[in-house]
Amino acid sequence: MAYKPQYYPGTTSVGKNRRKHMSGDLEKLRDISDADVVTIMGHRAPGADYPSTHPPLAEMGEPDCPIRQIVTPTPGAAAGDRIRYSQFADSMYNAPAIPYFRSYWAAINCRGSDPGTLSGRQIVEARERDIEQYTKIMMDTEMCDPALATMRGCTVHGHSLRLDEDGMMFDMLARTELGSDGNVYYVKDQVGIPLDRKVNAGKPMSEAEAKKRTTIFRCDNVSFGGPCTADKRTLDEGLVTLHHMWERRSKWGFRPE
Amino acid sequence: MVTKSDTESVQIEIFPQRFLKPDTAQRLLEEIYRSGGILRIMIQGPNLPKSVPYGPGKGIPIEEHMNMLLELGDSALELRVKVGRIWLELESEEKIEGVKAACERVLPCTFTIKRKQLFHTKPTVSDYAKYGSEVEDKRILGLVDPKAKRERDLAILSDTGGDT
């Protein structure tokens, strides 16, 4: 029987969504053009050549190395692109993705990437043409709700703050705005430099939709097992597994002799 | 505020479930002010910088945050925060209902009103550094944070704005 990876336990919608993120089996919800993604990232002008840090690998004459023979370089590495990044902040109000699951997704599904996990934001670094492709996947699929997850290269404040009146995550640099047509528009790139034109990032999810697609356990949506003060909690399988790991780690780690 | 009263004052916190747009904050404060009996008002929320503070875009002006004014009574203050919390000191407990009604009329989201001691009553070390050993008007205590500029972030309103 072929091996089937088991990414994450749990029978709740959150558990299922976490499995989807880790496996990369994500539903595509919108189509943002390559040029728009490049514009928001702000590393190069759309259509411009990719600056490089070294000649293409084919021209360099690589040393005789068994690993290099096994591993096919990514398109960015083969062309000698610069390392560039995209960073997202996710609201704690039922944003579809959270830093840890963005990192799991990137580490499992994106070759040649370096994901970095922080409390309220998550960065992925890779060769320029690779990171553009990975960022497009993040923005096009259910990993992103343009109102609750924004690309923010700096001044990322917003994850743990209340939402604005219109349901948008607070942004100190006002990079996004909710248009009168109901779409979210980027008016600045990820580091807050104004764009020549607004970039449409799609419609925000409804509150119910965000609750359905989130990977966040919350007491007011899908909780780990009800309030901590409840007489009897029915814990999600994910938490039971986590407790199991803690218990085993504590017992194995504690060796008094 | 300069209203004087014989009754015991109360302090309340209005906490909306969403951050307020400048227009909403303006309307809410107007309604609250109109309901009367206000001794002190403090608004609080995350900072809205005038320019990009970090990164490659450092120093680029943020046009969206320019020229935001809060006009109340005969004074105007520059709005420099996204309003997320309002502290009020009211003349008496009876005034709470008026504030609650104003919130229900204006706020587009749910909110909570809690009564508690909010403004500190004795000068802190920061107050000593800022105002010296003698604070002329004790009502200033707790109204602005230590780094605030008094002439920029504090306004004294007349008591003629309220209906009562």
Element layout with pairings:
The complex is a heterodimer of chains A (257) and B (164).
Chain A: H1 13-23, H2 34-41, H3 57-60, H4 66-70, H5 75-79, E1 83-90, H6 99-109, E2 114-117, E3 121-127, H7 128-140, E4 149-151, E5 176-178, E6 184-188, E7 194-200, H8 207-213, H9 237-253
Antiparallel strand pairs in A: 1-3, 1-4, 2-3, 5-6, 6-7
Helix pairs in contact in A: 1-6, 2-7
Chain B: E1 10-16, H1 22-35, E2 38-44, E3 69-72, E4 75-78, E5 85-90, H2 95-106, E6 111-115, H3 125-131, H4 150-153
Antiparallel strand pairs in B: 1-5, 1-6, 2-5, 3-4
Helix pairs in contact in B: 1-2
List keywords for this structure.
heterodimer, A: 257 residues, Lambda Exonuclease, Chain A, 2 domains, three-stranded antiparallel sheet, 7 strands, B: 164 residues, alpha+beta, Alpha-Beta Plaits, four-stranded antiparallel sheet, two-stranded antiparallel ribbon, 4 helices, 6 strands, 20% strand
User: What average pLDDT do the residues of chain B reach?
Assistant: 87
β-strand number of chain B: 6
Helicity of chain B, as a percent range: 10-25%
Number of helices of chain B: 4
What is the averaged pLDDT score of chain A?
92
Distance between the termini of chain B: 14 Å
Largest sheet of chain B: 4 strands, antiparallel
Shape of chain B: globular
CATH class of chain B: Alpha Beta
User: What multimeric state do the chains show?
Assistant: heterodimer
The whole-angstrom Rg of chain A is 21 Å
Structure description:
- The complex is a heterodimer of chains A (257) and B (164).
- Chain A is of the alpha+beta class and 257 residues long.
- Chain A is built from nine helices and seven strands.
- Chain A has helices at 13-23, 34-41, 57-60, 66-70, 75-79, 99-109, 128-140, 207-213, 237-253; strands at residues 83-90, 114-117, 121-127, 149-151, 176-178, 184-188, 194-200.
- In chain A, the strands form two sheets. Chain A has a four-stranded antiparallel beta sheet with strand order 2-3-1-4. Chain A has a three-stranded antiparallel beta sheet with strand order 5-6-7, covered by helices on one side.
- The longest helix of chain A is centred in the C-terminal third of the chain and has 17 residues, at 237-253.
- By secondary structure, chain B is of the alpha+beta class.
- Chain B has a single domain, classed as Alpha-Beta Plaits.
- Helices cover 23% and strands 20% of the residues of chain B.
- In chain B, the strands form two sheets. In chain B, strands 2-5-1-6 form a four-stranded antiparallel beta sheet, with helices on one face. A two-stranded antiparallel sheet of chain B has the order 3-4.
- The longest helix of chain B has 14 residues, at 22-35.
- Chain B is globular and about 55 Å long.
- Chain B starts with 9 loop residues before the first strand and ends in an 11-residue tail after the last helix.
- The model of chain B has no long low-confidence stretch (mean pLDDT 87).
- The chains are: A alpha+beta (257), B alpha+beta (164).
- The A-B interface holds A 42, 153-155, 157, 161-166, 170, 172-174, 188, 191-194 and B 16-21, 24, 46-49, 52-57, 60, 62, 64-65, 82, 84, 108-109.
